[in-house]
Amino acid sequence: PTQLTVSELLSQQNIEFDPEIEISEWPLYSGGPVDPERGFILHSAEKSWETTMKIGDAFGITSSKDIIEDSVSGQGPDKSLYILGYSGWEAGQLEQEISDNAWLTIPADPNIIFNLPAEKRWRSAASEIGVDLDLINLGVGHA
Predict the structure, then answer these.
(1) What is the pTM of this model?
(2) Is 138 inside any structural domain?
(3) Cβ-contact 106, 127 below 8 angstroms
(4) Do residues 68 and 15 touch, judged by C-beta distance below 8 A?
(5) How far separated are the first and last CA of the chain, in Å rounded?
(6) How confident is the model over 66-81, as pLDDT tens digits?
(7) How far apart are alpha carbons 119 and 18 in whole angstroms?
(8) How many structural domains compose the chain?
(9) Residue 107: is it exposed, middle or buried by C-beta count within 10 angstroms (0-12/13-18/19+)?
(10) Domain of 112: which CATH number?
(11) Burial, 60: exposed, middle or buried (Cβ in 10 Å; 0-12, 13-18, 19+)?
């Protein structure tokens, strides 16, 4: 999470929200260094909004203002992450990195994504595929 919360971002954008909705603690995440002013909401897929793109059966990603308006009035998705910016790759680059085993991948797990604290997600995801992160050496050149 960033140091900014969703309520602080909404206040900066002059977007009013229902004080009964406790958004002051909603964290705001950084999706990457590209276009850091652009916002996205990764959310559970029980409902769609103007720009929602479904990701499988469990997720949607939306960038239109209507989801924010619904969220701040209590009509938003059951689960969501608010994200600014994104990371990008050249065509085929990410696929090549995955093929080269530069990434550990698991099926997207709504429980890990939406229910665990951010600091526990990486370790939990790794354990899903039997990886103990304490055994991975992130240093290089020490052979």
Answers:
(1) 0.84
(2) no
(3) no
(4) yes
(5) 35
(6) 998 898 888 999 999 9
(7) 29
(8) 2
(9) exposed
(10) 3.40.1740.10
(11) buried
